[in-house]
Every structure is written in C-alpha cells, then in structure tokens.
Design brief:
Layout: H1 2-30
C-alpha cells in the first residue's frame, strides 16, 4: 500500500508539472 501511495503522489506531481509546462508553453506561444 505504501508503495502505491508513493507512486500515486509521483504521478500527481508529474501531472501537475505537465500542466504547468503546458500553461507556460501556451503563454509563450500567445506572445
């Protein structure tokens, strides 16, 4: 269970990072 929790936290962080990167890319593209 602990391993699954760690994997879930990592995946959530990865998704958050992807969203931030996409937001930054869209902002740069608009400029």
């Amino acid at each position: 269970m602990k391993m699954k929790n760690v994997m879930t936290q990592l995946s959530v962080k990865e998704v958050a990072i992807c969203l931030v990167v996409k937001d930054n890319a869209s902002l740069l593209h608009e400029q």
